[in-house]
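hiii so um. not sure if this is the right channel but i have a protein structure encoded as tokens and i wanna go backwards to a sequence. like what aa goes where. can anyone help
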């Protein structure tokens, strides 16, 4: 019989909102393993959305759990030639059959859930959000303006910034700048709460480099661990950064995650 400690470590059942996001990823990309950037991104999103109680932060909706949920959907999917992974919950089948032939509805509902997260409504469900609030959150102009405001604010959370300052020995990963007041804690995958504040999801960057990185005008080649620039920066002082090797932590375990960098690159103007 499982102990009380074992019960505490067991993850709670997936909620409807979580399953909608997982199904949207499955029908869009198919089966993915736990090293996939898309799986990692969804894992980080689910951790912050917290539609259900987080019982064990280390394993709650981790990348392995997300990949397994995609395999659960594959076991239900008649179009999948393999076996998938049996043992999913009853709600998995309900959600799959509800949206199987209604992809537009699925994309719409998944977008609403993600929009609530972007707008800061991480602890509220779709049903609790008024139409007026949802309209405001989904307004792309507001989202874009909010993103630019955030660039001006973010010195980075104190603990996260300190961790990066220690890991990178007070040097900007791109330029080598050692002026500590000018250095900021940059998230590789966008900030989604405390679960995003892992050293592997961060880079210590000079303020202007941080802004360009967030705008996708600078990125990192995950294979060479070198700087990439967009066409918009050619002919500027930033062109000299192209191909420059990153300054990385001496402790390899604190180096930026390659899957994280790949995801950022794929959504940047440097791809």
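sure thing!! here u go:
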């Amino acid at each position: 019989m499982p102990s009380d400690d074992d019960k505490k470590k067991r993850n709670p059942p997936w909620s409807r909102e979580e399953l909608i996001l997982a199904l949207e990823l499955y029908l869009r990309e198919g089966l993915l393993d736990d090293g996939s950037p898309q799986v990692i991104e969804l894992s980080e999103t689910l951790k912050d959305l917290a539609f259900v109680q987080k019982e064990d932060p280390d394993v709650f909706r981790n990348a392995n759990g997300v990949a397994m949920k995609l395999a659960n959907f594959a076991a239900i999917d008649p179009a999948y030639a393999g076996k998938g992974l049996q043992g999913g919950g009853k709600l998995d089948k309900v959600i799959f059959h509800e949206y199987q032939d209604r992809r537009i509805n699925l994309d719409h509902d998944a977008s609403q859930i993600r929009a609530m997260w972007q707008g800061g409504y991480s602890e509220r469900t779709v049903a609790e959000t008024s139409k007026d609030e949802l309209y405001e959150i989904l307004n792309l102009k507001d989202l874009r303006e909010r993103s630019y405001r955030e660039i001006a604010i973010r010195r980075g959370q104190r603990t996260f910034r300190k961790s990066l300052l220690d890991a990178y020995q007070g040097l900007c990963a791109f330029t080598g700048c050692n002026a500590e007041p000018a250095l900021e804690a940059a998230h590789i995958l966008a900030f989604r709460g405390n679960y995003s504040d892992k050293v592997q999801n961060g880079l210590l960057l000079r303020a202007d480099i941080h802004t360009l990185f967030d705008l996708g005008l600078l990125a990192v080649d995950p294979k060479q661990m070198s700087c990439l620039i967009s066409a918009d920066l050619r002919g500027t002082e930033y062109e000299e950064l192209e191909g420059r090797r990153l300054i990385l932590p001496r402790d390899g375990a604190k180096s930026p995650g390659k899957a994280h960098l790949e995801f950022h690159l794929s959504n940047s103007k440097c791809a």
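oh and The chain has a mean pLDDT of 79.
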